[in-house]
Structures are given as structure tokens and as C-alpha cells.
Automatic annotation (TrEMBL), chain A:
Lineage: Eukaryota, Metazoa, Chordata, Craniata, Vertebrata
Sample GO molecular function, one term: ciliary neurotrophic factor receptor binding
Protein name per UniProt: Ciliary neurotrophic factor
InterPro entries membership: 4_helix_cytokine-like_core, Ciliary_neurotrophic_fac_CNTF
Gene Ontology biological process: ciliary neurotrophic factor-mediated signaling pathway; negative regulation of neuron apoptotic process
Protein species of origin: Eleginops maclovinus (Patagonian blennie)
TrEMBL record, chain B:
Keywords: Glycoprotein, Membrane, Receptor, Repeat, Signal, Transmembrane, Transmembrane helix
Skewed-composition ranges (Polar residues): 862-872, 945-955, 970-987
GO cellular component assignments: plasma membrane
Family annotation (Pfam families): LIF-R_Ig-like (PF21177), LIFR_D2 (PF17971), LIFR_D4 (PF25552)
Species classification: Eukaryota, Metazoa, Chordata, Craniata, Vertebrata
Similarity annotation: Belongs to the type I cytokine receptor family. Type 2 subfamily.
Ranges of compositional bias, category Low complexity: 833-843
Chain spans, region Disordered: 791-844, 862-987
Protein name: Fibronectin type-III domain-containing protein
Taxonomic source organism: Eleginops maclovinus
Protein's membrane topology: Single-pass type I membrane protein
Transmembrane region(s): 708-731
């Protein structure tokens, strides 16, 4: 045990622990998002099967051809858009529908927002580890970032954003669970390539 | 409809003419009227969608009455058909009429037409004007109206849903409720929500579904209240500007953009939205009169206020507080924020806080900026804050300033409160109460205790650290060397500032051992022990009341209080009072003389049942009475004033109260006239709290023993006397007794020739031995009938084997222990005299009488434990065979019979003579002489006849043996038996 404790953490270990942490955060976020959706539906008397048409987040379609970095980039980009949408939704909601007493819904909304930020930090680290860009700016082009004009449409829009966060949280869990072995293998391959290159030199 | 049926008459022509004339007349009138009433022209519609109000205007000359018809265009359903009176508007010169629709005006297109009316005469209808709805085919989308409406609580609101072109209507929901809808047009459906309750802060949703319940649209509706402000008041703080304050007395449930907007004197109040109902708005100048209007989507509310500036001064908090501090007072200084205050008569309040207690001091003055705080405690922490108001036309206190703190300077401590406890010798202790923080008045350094004799100028001083509050004293030496009657004990306290005034108590040196006063009882109440005493009217001295645990006798931990002169009562209370503890409370005079004990009380804070029963409970029988006696319960265990004792007699689990002794001094109780038997008594002491557990003592009441002893002594005396008489008679008549009971018997003469080899058992009983064969009719088979009559020497003989061995040549007594199975081996005998042979021969005739000769002090070897423990060892034990041919081996006859004899079979003693010679074998002759016996007894006891067999012992005297005896000596009798016995005892 002592040896295990004092072992130096290597690159693949960092990746694995980061992936595990990110997956754990995503799982938490997914749980918290489901609670938020439940609270929102209860507050607005929406049924669970209320119509939500189309996605709000715009990212390239998934493909088996995507490597780890691209998958992480796609995920990270989608989560970034989610956070932008969520920030805007909360602001609009406070501006036009807020003012009443703060309750469980408002608390949960903040929890989800904060957790999404943590998940973004984790996926950002992973993306950096995988060789992606260090800083990614969310592409808000095409996003319905301002939302609708009528209050009911605004409520539906907020609901759609919560659903979008929920969707991309699930996607994050799926993507992250598939990552550790890949990163480890790729890291090993990278190490081998580097070793080979060093030997050749 | 019979009354409408036509009545056919006989003169139709006249009536027809009349009817035609009437019709013509009416036609003429109608034609005239049409010519007069103008048809409304230029009908114009103006719709306010938010208020759902339709304004209709038209030109119709001087006509004032009109028929209006409003239809839903698409379904041609009448919404309104009404005759109204409308005057020409002076402003526009047109007839104008407003109508508020129940449904939103967007729901569907409405057609409006108007005609003039005057009485029954109407003009032609105007052209139909259509207010276009939102359900036109050109607007294909899903729509719902009204949009985001704000309505008051209790309102009824109608919503309409316009379906998307091509979709079928499903339902309309309000919150969680499905509503009943009506169709307004091909695509438009309406529903009404009645008596609406408060919505959520984000509004209640009205949602319209298509028939698949997939496609939805909706609106939010906000239900709240109109504004209701209150407590509107304006004041000044800087003597220039105005600050107006008010409260929202009701939550309107409308927030942010739908929240209440305010105007003050028609100027909008730029207030940031806040949920705080307290509102404050500042205006740069003093207007003297103000109107506040609160407005929201549901209504408005106005409030007014007016006042002179000087009547509404609310000064701001004083600033920059400082202090100048002394030991007993301090000065607080502050500054005023606005210049106008310096000329204003102010009243200021200084709040002083020390040790959690707050006091307020009020000061006045024009432009007041300082205050002196008197009566402060030295070396005390204080905090201060100040607020002010206008002294004239006081309006309200201003805000508190910030708090400043300071600490007053030190002073010498106060004199300690001291007292002296003296034991019943010249020892005792000087005690004092620790000074409180305030009494210390500085940083304490210690105490000083001094004993001095004023006349002898003897002085002893002791410095005592801070944490000690009692010092033991011993005045024995002073008392012996001093001629004074008094010693003064003084205590002073010291702090960094100096020494306190001394506190002193005079101690008399000539102690009296007398407790002069009776002790009263003190009663404890909610206020403590309430004490009262008589006082001399001229008495000017104070008192000291001292109390301590009554069970303490030496250097007691006492507490005391001082009572001012003139008082005759006091209540003493202490957190140290404990239930069940008796306290001695003493009242002393406190003067320049030595304290004098004036009165003493004892009391309990709360009496409890005694913790232990009475001590040393004893029961004593006094003839038929029982005296119970006990000692009192120790004081510590009493835990209350013992009121008496209950005496119980217990039988099993039942207690019977015998007596209640109400005298607490009782120490005994006599239970009278009790019959013989066993008794158990319990004595329980009781206090006002109840009985203790009780002490119990038992006694067995025996009969009166003196009489019994007398009876026994008398019986013994009579018996002794009888024995003496009998003995005397026997002695006097001994010759007669001998003749009568045991005359001389001739010695037997044996017939036949007894060879040596077949010599009979030659056993010569010792002259001093006497063997009695007792034949008892009540003989018990389990208890053999042979009884040994011990004689004087037997004890000596029986003392040990070794002794017997050393005297083997002497005739030895044959001893019969029929009741004890002695397992020790029998040593064989060798005949040494004819007498003994003869006597033994005689015995041989009844040889079975020798059977069972087991033990004799001289004969018998004492079995060792090995032999005993190996009782079942086989008869083939080599020890049996040690003799080879010679020795007396009585077991040989029985050896084959039973192993049961094993335990009784002794190991033969290794007698050398027995081993070398042939020796006497009584079994052989006996067998020959007693074939019948052998035959009869063989089945029962093959060992019968073995004189030393234990088994034989068992068979010596059963019935079968008796038969044997009878066969051998058919004429035997008791006399013969006695003769034989006596002869064998002859020397």
C-alpha cells in the first residue's frame, strides 16, 4: 500500500483519474438535472411528455471516425453551449418571471448551473490532455440565445434548455465512460512512438 | 294556437276594405319615417386588444337611439344585439360607443352593423363593419389569447385558442385543470376561467393542445392584487432634504415589470426593485406636502403627507465618538454631521453597557456634543453609543452611533466580608468571601490576614494568595501567654492600587463550652430559610447570620450574611443548600465587641426519608415478653427531623404495625405476652418525608427455661438416688446374686482323643476378657447379636497392633464386633494351655460363635488403605499364599465361594511361625463335625464357619445359624449360655 501511495502519478493515470472524476460529475449533474426538470414541470404544470422540438445545441454529428480528441471537443463544445443557454435562460427567467420567493427550484437551478461549470472544467482538462485547444469559445451562432418574446414561449424555451442540458449530460456520461481505455491505449501508443523515435535518433 | 285561428264571418267585403285602409295608412307612415331617420354612416371601429374594448363611432345626424348588432362573422352568431342611446361627441362630432368583449377581440372576426331608431321607427342598417380576428386563413399559426394578461384575484377570464390550419382542436388546460371550451369559429375555441386565485410568481399557464396533445401553445396569466401602500411619512435628516418612507402593506404577487410603480408629487420614484416592503425615497428639498401614488396593472393607490420641517427632524447618528475615562466616571464626546445641528436644541441618549447590562442616560443642549457618565465602577469595561433627536418638536430618535469601548481606572479594593469559625478549642479558621470583580476594583494581588492582641501587642500576619479564602488559626499559644481576653482577626485585600480597609472580627480567648441557647427549627420556603428574632429596641449593632452543615463539627465550611442593624428577620438562600442536610443557623451580634451568639436554628431545605435505619436493633426475651431496643440513626443519615418510630411485626411478606412511637427519643419497645415461636420485628424511623427502609431483628421465643431446668435437676436427683440404692442392695446381696444368676459351672471334659495335629482351636480367652454372646429376640439380621463388653484393659489392648504383636503369647480376648466389619487380618492363635483349649473347645461346640471374631486390639492388623481400596482384588493375591503350608487361613474355606469377601479378606500377616508350622485349621474339623451345616449353609454362605471371615460375620447369627446352634445344643438355654460365658471369663 505504501508503494502505491508513493507511486508517481503518470500521464495515463492523470487521464484516467480525470476521466473518472468527469464521469462522476456528469452522473451527479444528470441526477441533479432530472430533479431540476421535475421541479420545473411541477412549477409550471407541464407534463413530462410536453413537446420539445429539435435540439438547441449545435455540434457536428457523432461519428465512429472521430478520435478521442474530437469526441472530447464535440462534448466540450456542446456543454459550453449548454452553459451559455442555461445562463441566458436563468437571466431571462429572473428578469421576466422572477421576483417571487426563492424556493427549491431556484436552488436546484443554481446547483445544476454550478455542476455544469465543474463538468466543463473537467472536460476542458481532458480535452487539453488529449491535445485539444486549451481554451474553447462556445460557438453561439445559430443558438436561440435570446429566446422567445411571449412568456409562455419563454417557459417552453427554458424547459428545452433544461432538457438539452439533461441530454448532453447523458451524452457526457456515455462519452466519458468510453474514454479511459482509449486514452490509456493511445497514451501507450504515443509513448511507444516517442520511444521508437528516440531510438531512431 | 286556437286563439290565432282566423274567424270566418258573413260579411267579408266590409272587413277587407277596412284592413286595406289600415295597411295603406301604415305604409304611408313608414315611408315618411324612412325619409326622416338617417342611416348611420361611416361606421368606424377601434379595438383595444389589451382591454378587449371595441370603440365604435359613426355619423347619424341628430339620431340618438341606435340598434347595434355584433356577430361572429364566420359562424354568424350574435354576440350583441342591443338598442343604445348615444349622443354625438362634442369633440369628434360623431356618435361613439364602447363595448368590452368577454372574449379577446383577436379570437375571431366580428361584424358590426348599426341602425337608427326612434320609437318603433328604424332606419336602414348601416354597412357591416368587420373587426378582423386572428383566425383568418392568412394567419395559419397556433395562437392563444389574451397574451400574458394580469388580472385581479377573483376575476373571470376568457381565453381563446386558434388552431393551426389543418389541425384539430384538442383541449385547453388551466394549470392542471382541463377546461370546457366553446367554438367561436372554424379554428377558434374559447374557455373561461372563473374566480381565479393567486397565480405563482411566474404566472399560471393556459395551455392549448391539438387533438394529438402533441402540438401546444399557451399563455401565462398573472393573478394578483392592486397596490396597497401605507405608513407614508416624510422627514428630514439634514434639515434640508426630504426623505419619504412608506410600506407595502400587501404583497401584490406581481413582480419585476408587473410590479408596483410609484410617483411622488407626480414624479416617478426611481426605486430599485426589491422584495423589502419598506420603501424610502429621497427628494432634494422640503416641499411640505407630498402625494404618493402606487400603480400596477390592477389599479392604483394614493397617500398624502404634510408637515413643517422643524417637526420632522430625524438627526443622523453622531460621529467620531471619543471618551475621557476616570475611575468612577467618564466623558463621552462626539461630532455632529451637519452644520445645522450645531444650532439645534438636541436631546441625546447615551447607552452604557457593562457586563451585559444596559443603562441609558439622557442629556440635552444646543448642538450637544459631549456627556459625562457618573457612577461608574473602577476597573470596569464599558461600551457606549449615542443617538440624538430634536429637543423641541421631538419627532423621533435618530440612528445610534457606532459603539466605542473604554475601561475605567483602578482603585484600592473594597474591604472583604470576613467571618471566623472557632472549634471547641483554640483552633478555628478565618474566612472571607472572595471579592467580586467590581469589589476588587483593580487587578487583585492577594489577601493579608492578621491576628493581634491589642494589649499585648502581639501580631501575626500572613499573606494569602488570591485563590485561598480561609486560613486556619490556632490561638492556644496566644491564649497561654496573653492576658487579653480577645484576639482581633483582620483581613485586607490588596490590588495593584493598594490595600483595602481592614475587615475585623474579635475572637474571645476565654472560650465557654456551654451552648447557651435552645435550638429552634427553621422552615424553608421559596425564599429560603425565613428567620425571625426578637431585638432590643436600643440595639444598634448589626447581625451576622451564619449557617453550616449540622453534622460538621470541625473546621466547618460555613456561609454567612450580614444583616443591617434594626432588622429582626431575614431569609437566607444559598445555591449550596441541599435536600436532606441539616443546617445549623446561628445569629450573632456584630459590633465592636466580640460576636455574641443570640439565637440558633436548625432546619432542612427539604426533608427526606432517613437513608439508613435505626442502629443496633436488638431483641431480648423477657419471660413471655420481647424487648426491642435500638440506637438512634446517625445525624447524617436522618435527613430530616425524626418524628417517631413505627414497630412492625412481619410474618412472611406481611407487615403488621404493632406500635407507633411518636416520641423521637424512644429507644425501646416491649412486645408483651407473646406465645412461644419465632418472630421478626422491623423498626422504621419516620420523618415528614416518610419511613426509612427499616431495621429487622428476629427472635425465637423459647419456653421459660428456669422451670425446665428445675424439672431436669429433680429427675436426675431421683435417678441417682435410685441407682445408689440398687447398687447398695446388690452389694449387700452379692452372694445371693451370684448363686441366683451365675453359679459355678464345672469345666467341660472332652471325650475322645484329640491328636495334636487335629487339635481343637485352643483359644484361651484372657482372664480379663469377657465375651458375651447376646441372643436378643429382637435381633436384627443387619445388626449382629454379638456384643463386645469392653473391659478396662481392652482399651489398652486396642491401642495398636504393634503392642498386640509384642504380646502374642498372652491369651488374647476374642472380640466380636458384629456391627463393624473390620477388615483387618486376624492373627492366628496357637493353643498354649488346656484350659484355654477347653474353654475354646467349649466354644468350639458353638464354633460359629468364633465366626466373626474380627477385631481385637491385640489381634487385628489394621488394614492399610491399600487393602481397603483394593477390596475387590482377586483371592489369588500372593499375600494369601505367603504362608505356604502353615498359618491360619480362615479364608481358605470360603475362597472359592465368593469374591465378594475380597474386601473383607485381610491380607495375612506374615507371621513366621504360621508360615513354618502346620498350625490350627479349624475349618477342617468344623467341616467334619458339621456336615449338615456345610450342606445347608453351603448354598447360602459357603464361608460359614470361617471364624474370621467377614462374610462369615454376616452369617454368624442369622436364622440358619440359630438352627445350627439348636442342632448342636438342643438343650441350650439362656442359663447355659450365661454359664459358658461366665466360665470363659474366669481367670
Amino acid at each position: 500500500m505504501a508503494a502505491r501511495r508513493t507511486r508517481r502519478i503518470t500521464g495515463p493515470d492523470v487521464s484516467r483519474s480525470t476521466v473518472a472524476r468527469a464521469a462522476r460529475i456528469a452522473e451527479l449533474l444528470q441526477y441533479e438535472c432530472s430533479i431540476l426538470l421535475e421541479l420545473y414541470r411541477e412549477k409550471e404544470s407541464f407534463t413530462a411528455d410536453i413537446l420539445v422540438d429539435g435540439r438547441l445545441v449545435s455540434v457536428p454529428p457523432p461519428s465512429s471516425q472521430l478520435d478521442t480528441r474530437d469526441k472530447l471537443w464535440r462534448l466540450h463544445s456542446a456543454l459550453l453551449q449548454c452553459r451559455s443557454l442555461l445562463d441566458r435562460a436563468i437571466a431571462r427567467e429572473e428578469e421576466e418571471l422572477g421576483g417571487g420567493k426563492k424556493g427549491d427550484y431556484e436552488t436546484q437551478r443554481k446547483v445544476v448551473k454550478d455542476r455544469l461549470s465543474y463538468l466543463l472544467i473537467s472536460t476542458g482538462e481532458l480535452l487539453k490532455t488529449a491535445g485539444g485547444p486549451a481554451l474553447l469559445t462556445p460557438n453561439l451562432e445559430g443558438l436561440e440565445i435570446d429566446g422567445p418574446t411571449t412568456l409562455f414561449e419563454l417557459k417552453l424555451w427554458v424547459h428545452r434548455i433544461f432538457k438539452e442540458v439533461d441530454y448532453w449530460t447523458k451524452m457526457a456520461i456515455t462519452t466519458l465512460e468510453a474514454l479511459p481505455s482509449v486514452i490509456a491505449k493511445e497514451s501507450m501508443m504515443t509513448t511507444r512512438v516517442r520511444s521508437t523515435r528516440s531510438a531512431r535518433r | 294556437m286556437p286563439h290565432l285561428s282566423v274567424n270566418r264571418s258573413s260579411k267579408p267585403n266590409c272587413r277587407t276594405v277596412w284592413l286595406i285602409s289600415v295597411l295603406v295608412g301604415l305604409l304611408a307612415i313608414h315611408t315618411y319615417a324612412n325619409d326622416v331617420l338617417p342611416v348611420p354612416q361611416q361606421v368606424s371601429l377601434s379595438a383595444n386588444m389589451d382591454s378587449q374594448q371595441l370603440s365604435i363611432s359613426w355619423l347619424a345626424g341628430a339620431a340618438t337611439t341606435f340598434d347595434l348588432v355584433i356577430l361572429r362573422t364566420e359562424l354568424d352568431e350574435t354576440v350583441l344585439s342591443e338598442t343604445v342611446s348615444v349622443m354625438v361627441s362634442q369633440l369628434s362630432g360623431r356618435h361613439e360607443w364602447n363595448w368590452t368583449s368577454v372574449e379577446p377581440l383577436e379570437c375571431t372576426s366580428l361584424s358590426i352593423k348599426i341602425r337608427s331608431r326612434e320609437g318603433q321607427t328604424t332606419s336602414e342598417w348601416s354597412n357591416t363593419e368587420i373587426l378582423q380576428g386572428s383566425d383568418l386563413p392568412s394567419e395559419e399559426n397556433f395562437q392563444i389569447f389574451p397574451l400574458d394578461k394580469v388580472v385581479p384575484v377573483g376575476a373571470n377570464t376568457t381565453f381563446c385558442c386558434i388552431m393551426k390550419e389543418g389541425n384539430q382542436f384538442g383541449k385547453i388546460r388551466y394549470g392542471n385543470t382541463d377546461l370546457i371550451s366553446t367554438r367561436l369559429s372554424r379554428r377558434s375555441y374559447a374557455t373561461t376561467v372563473f374566480n381565479q386565485g393567486l397565480s405563482s410568481s411566474s404566472g399560471s399557464n393556459v395551455i392549448c393542445y391539438d387533438n394529438t396533445e402533441q402540438l401546444i401553445t399557451g399563455v401565462a396569466v398573472f393573478v394578483g392584487y392592486p397596490p396597497l401602500p401605507g405608513d407614508f411619512v416624510c422627514e428630514t435628516r439634514d434639515l434640508t432634504s426630504t426623505v419619504c418612507l412608506w410600506n407595502e402593506r400587501r404583497d401584490t404577487n406581481l413582480y419585476k415589470s408587473r410590479g408596483t410603480r410609484y410617483t411622488l408629487n407626480n414624479r416617478p420614484c426611481a426605486l430599485e426593485w426589491s422584495r423589502n416592503p419598506q420603501k424610502e425615497y429621497r427628494v432634494a428639498n422640503w416641499e411640505g406636502k407630498w402625494t404618493l401614488v402606487a400603480v400596477n396593472a390592477l389599479g392604483q393607490y394614493s397617500l398624502t403627507d404634510s408637515a413643517k420641517l422643524s417637526h420632522r427632524v430625524n438627526p443622523v447618528a453622531p460621529e467620531h465618538l471619543t471618551s475621557v475615562v476616570h475611575a468612577l466616571n467618564a466623558t463621552v464626546l462626539w461630532q455632529l454631521k451637519y452644520d445645522g445641528y450645531y444650532s439645534l436644541a438636541l436631546v441625546c441618549q447615551v447607552e452604557l453597557t457593562s457586563q451585559g447590562y444596559k443603562t441609558k442616560h439622557t442629556f440635552t443642549g444646543v448642538g450637544l456634543r459631549s456627556a459625562v457618565l457618573p457612577d461608574l465602577y473602577p476597573y470596569e469595561d464599558y461600551s457606549v453609543q449615542v443617538r440624538c433627536g430634536a429637543q423641541q418638536n421631538f419627532w423621533k430618535w435618530g440612528s445610534w452611533s457606532e459603539t466605542i469601548s473604554f475601561k475605567t481606572s483602578s482603585l484600592v479594593p473594597e474591604s472583604p466580608d470576613m467571618w471566623v469559625w472557632m472549634n471547641k478549642d483554640y483552633t478555628g479558621q478565618v474566612m472571607w468571601k472572595p471579592l467580586t470583580r467590581r469589589q476588587s476594583r483593580g487587578l487583585m494581588t492577594g489577601y493579608e490576614v492578621t491576628l493581634w492582641s491589642p494589649e499585648e501587642h502581639l501580631q501575626h500576619t500572613e499573606i494569602v494568595p488570591l485563590d485561598i479564602f480561609a486560613v486556619p488559626i490556632n490561638l492556644t499559644q496566644i491564649a497561654t501567654v496573653s492576658s487579653d481576653n480577645m484576639v482581633m482577626a483582620t483581613v485586607t485585600a490588596k490590588n495593584t492600587e493598594g490595600v483595602s480597609q481592614p475587615a475585623s472580627v474579635l475572637i474571645p480567648l476565654r472560650l465557654t463550652d456551654v451552648d447557651p441557647l435552645a435550638v429552634s427549627r427553621a422552615v424553608y420556603t421559596d425564599q429560603g430559610f425565613s428567620l425571625f428574632w426578637q431585638s432590643d429596641a436600643n440595639a444598634t449593632f448589626a447581625y451576622v447570620v451564619e449557617w453550616c452543615n449540622a453534622s460538621c463539627k470541625w473546621n466547618c465550611l460555613v456561609d454567612w450574611i450580614n444583616v443591617a442593624p434594626g432588622n429582626t428577620n431575614v431569609s437566607i438562600e444559598s445555591a449550596n443548600f441541599q435536600p436532606g442536610v441539616r443546617y445549623n443557623i446561628s445569629l450573632y451580634s456584630s459590633s465592636s465587641e466580640a460576636p455574641e451568639l443570640l439565637q440558633r436554628w436548625q432546619g432542612y431545605m427539604q426533608e427526606l426519608v432517613p437513608s439508613s435505619p435505626v442502629m443496633s436493633l436488638l431483641t431480648t426475651q423477657q419471660d413471655s415478653d420481647i424487648l426491642l431496643s435500638w440506637e438512634q440513626i446517625p445525624l447524617v443519615s436522618r435527613r430530616g427531623f425524626v418524628l417517631g418510630y413505627n414497630i412492625y411485626m412481619s410474618s412472611g411478606s406481611q407487615f403488621t404495625l404493632l406500635a407507633n412511637l411518636s416520641d423521637p427519643g424512644s429507644r425501646s419497645y416491649k412486645v408483651k405476652s407473646m406465645p412461644e415461636g419465632s418472630y421478626k420485628f422491623t423498626v422504621k424511623a419516620y420523618t415528614s418525608a416518610g419511613e426509612d427502609t427499616g431495621a429487622t431483628a428476629s427472635i425465637m421465643l423459647e419456653p421459660f427455661t428456669d422451670r425446665l431446668i428445675l424439672e431436669i435437676l429433680a429427675s436426675l436427683g431421683v435417678t441417682a438416688l435410685f441407682l445408689v440404692i440398687v447398687t447398695f442392695i446388690c452389694y449387700k446381696k452379692r452372694q445371693w446374686v451370684k448363686k441366683a444368676f451365675y453359679p459355678d459351672i464345672p469345666e467341660p471334659k472332652l471325650p475322645g482323643d484329640w491328636s495334636r495335629s487335629q487339635a481343637p482351636l485352643d483359644v484361651k480367652p484372657p482372664h480379663h476378657s469377657l465375651v458375651h454372646m447376646v441372643e436378643r429376640p429382637e435381633w436384627d439380621s443387619s445388626k449382629e447379636a454379638l456384643v463386645v463388653i469392653p473391659e478396662e484393659d481392652e482399651d489398652e489392648d486396642g491401642q495398636g497392633i504393634g503392642e498386640a504383636l509384642a504380646d502374642t503369647d498372652e491369651p488374647t480376648s476374642l472380640r466380636y464386633y458384629n456391627q463393624v466389619v473390620d477388615e483387618r487380618p486376624i492373627r492366628p492363635r496357637y493353643p498354649d494351655s488346656s484350659d484355654s483349649s477347653a474353654s475354646s473347645l467349649d466354644s468350639a461346640r458353638t464354633d460359629v460363635t468364633y465366626t466373626g471374631i474380627q477385631t481385637s486390639g491385640s489381634f487385628v492388623f489394621q488394614l492399610d488403605s491399600h487393602g481397603s481400596s483394593e477390596g475387590h482384588q482377586p483371592q489369588a493375591d500372593p499375600s494369601f499364599c505367603a504362608g505356604g503350608g502353615g498359618g491360619y487361613r480362615p479364608q481358605m474355606q470360603s475362597r472359592v465361594v465368593s469374591d465378594d469377601t475380597g474386601p473383607a479378606s485381610p491380607n495375612p500377616y506374615p507371621d513366621p511361625e504360621a508360615a513354618s508350622g502346620g498350625g490350627y485349621k479349624p475349618q477342617s474339623s468344623w467341616q467334619m463335625d458339621s456336615p449338615v451345616e456345610d450342606g445347608e449353609g453351603g448354598s447360602r454362605a459357603p464361608s460359614l464357619g470361617s471364624p474370621t471371615s467377614i462374610a462369615s460375620t454376616q452369617f454368624l447369627l442369622p436364622d440358619g445359624e440359630e438352627h445350627t446352634e439348636e442342632k448342636r445344643q438342643p438343650s441350650s438355654s439362656a442359663a447355659t449360655w450365661l454359664t459358658n460365658l461366665l466360665s470363659s471369663t474366669k481367670p
